[in-house]
Amino acid sequence: MNELLPLCNSCDLLEGGDAVPFDVDYAGQTCRAFAIRYEGLAQAYLNRCSHVAMELDWQPNRIFDDSGQWLLCASHGAAYRPDTGECAGGPCQGGLVKIALSENHGVVYWHADYKLKPVSF
Questions:
Q1: What is the pTM of this model?
Q2: Which of 11, 33, 48, 52 is most exposed by smallest CB count within 10 Å?
């Protein structure tokens, strides 16, 4: 089964801009997730730092650093690569939990049946 759920219009995801939040089921719990655009591609991750299970936002839907090049945990300073979710520095352990997205005809979809798992490197 390939359950695609519309998340937002493609134009809502600006390069290095605000994230679009949404909820997913992860480990039997409803958890916050976010979608961003980086290097032209839509990416999505569970909004949970791998260091301590806290949301990354330093302000609502602000996950990128000021340069738009890194995803930062506001609480601990862990930095993640926006294209892979891999830990790039700070106290992160492993990477962010990746969520599958696709874009078609100006709409971003998330794959609700995709098995969420932490990025490992």
A1: 0.90
A2: 11
